[in-house]
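User: Sequence for Antitoxin below. Tokens please.
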Amino acid sequence: MRKVLADCSASISELKRNPTALLAESDGAPIAILNHNKPAAYLVPAETYEWIMEMIDDQELSQIVEKRRHDKHKAVSVNLDDL
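Assistant: Structure tokens for Antitoxin:
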């Protein structure tokens, strides 16, 4: 059995009937869309999805910073007045 990773759930039939109401009812939380009582998809409001994407982007940037921090010995010194 697959674990449902959301506090809210709805059937595909409920989703077809009124997706906007489901989103409003969830108050920004993800909704597990169930097909035969198994998660088929997760529905999240646009704001929540945008926040998730920003967090992923921040994580990727953090990994780049850490990698470059270890390569600090390869850095080139630059005087801002010379730019």
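The domain at 8-72 is CATH 3.40.1620.10 (YefM-like fold).
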